[in-house]
């Protein structure tokens, strides 16, 4: 722990202390706020604190990306979803569905914290400084991260592009409105009936269960047609 | 001389613990998701700290990829949450114990 006592300059210490307090207060606020909107705003506070810490550690590029991506995009997405779903009501903390869960969670958390703090002492796994990708002057941070991404980690970067495309397609598929009442409760019969129509495509799974009479004009136009023609046409296409 | 790495790692450990405990004790799916973001940020802070400590830019590159994966994860996760809430409004994590919908 002698490493903790290395003298730091006064501005650095003040910056770190303020940012750390902001981070911790924000994190506690995320967990303790009863209103999800307050949780999201507290999350913004934590993210800004972490961005300041990134700056303090000479990671200028990541600090900017942290503010732009996290605070600018992700939290806004959270807030959009909260407002869209109207779940900004307060959560009831009174009853505990799983008895003793909070105490157990706190004990587990403290145990994990103690473990990590034990590891955060001066004993690094190897402790060997890098020889290949050494950090340069702080002013070159953006250039260095860019070079690292586009040379050493180029494959991972390309895979990242594929990941983002998959995420976008997945979000579109998930968020597609299933063309029935938003408050509809589902019965197990519908869910069991749905996979039978897997051949006919995604929309039918949502349309089929209870919308036969509601969207009869629309459903009659193509729902009965698909299963009849689906199999022969597919076999004809694939055979030659 | 800047702040020693142990302070950053301690702070990251605290952030991670708060996120983990929040994930365990909260019932609101959205807040649980935010707690996951807290834990990711703690991991990012550790990455950047070790990048400085070991003088290697790869740690910062890893944070970049974590950010991208976090963004993708949030998009898909919020899509799932929206579809869950559409089926049963006001659902908490306890109401989603069955995977059949």
Keywords:
heterodimer, A: 240 residues, mainly alpha, Four Helix Bundle (Hemerythrin (Met), subunit A), 65% helix, disordered C terminus, B: mainly alpha, 3 helices, 0% strand
Explained architecture:
The complex is a heterodimer of chains A (240) and B (101). Chain A has 10 helices and no strands. Chain A is mainly α. Chain A has a domain at 9-124: Up-down Bundle (Four Helix Bundle (Hemerythrin (Met), subunit A)), CATH 1.20.120. In chain A, helix 1 (10-32) packs antiparallel against helix 2 (36-56), helix 2 runs antiparallel to helix 3 (60-85) and helix 5 crosses helix 6. The relative contact order of chain A is 0.05. Chain B has 101 residues and is an all-alpha fold. Chain B has a domain at 27-90. In chain B, helix 1 packs antiparallel against helix 2 and helix 2 runs antiparallel to helix 3 (58-87). Chain B starts with a helix and ends in a 14-residue tail after the last helix. At the A-B interface, helix 1, helix 2, helix 3, helix 4 and helix 5 of A face helix 1, helix 2 and helix 3 of B.
